[in-house]
Amino acid sequence: MFTKDEEQQLRQRLADTVRYVVSQRLVSKIAGGRLLVTEIMGTSLRTRETLLYGESENRTFQEIIEAGNTMGWHTFDQSLLEAYKTDLISDETALIFLLAQKQNAT
């Protein structure tokens, strides 16, 4: 969508302004109703570098989020797993959303 020059300028703007990225989904609970499942990533040196230079084999947003758990960051998969461990969602629900997540990533 952007020329190379525009892409670099956009990456710089994002790296300078992004503070948090939050993704959320609703999944079916065992006892009925819906449960909010989230993915949260904040800004850090690694986040800014990845925004500036793009993901690589040694630098992915998934890895950055997983490493940021001490700051309260977590992946969608980690959130689903926690909901499953606390018996809020069924194994079937967890698998459906995990598989859908993997298909969307490819």
Can I get a quick summary?
With 106 residues, this protein is of the alpha+beta class.
Overall description:
With 106 residues, the protein is an alpha+beta fold. The chain has one domain (4-105): Rossmann fold, CATH 3.40.50. It is 52% helix and 17% strand. The protein is built from five helices and two strands; from the N terminus they run αββαααα. The protein has helices at 4-17, 45-53, 61-67, 76-85, 91-105; strands at residues 20-28, 34-42. It has a two-stranded antiparallel sheet. Strand 1 and strand 2 (34-42) form a beta hairpin.
How would the blueprint of this fold be written?
Layout: H1 4-17, E1 20-28, E2 34-42, H2 45-53, H3 61-67, H4 76-85, H5 91-105
Antiparallel strand pairs: 1-2
Record keyword descriptors for this entry.
106 residues; alpha+beta; Rossmann fold; two-stranded antiparallel ribbon; 5 helices; 52% helix
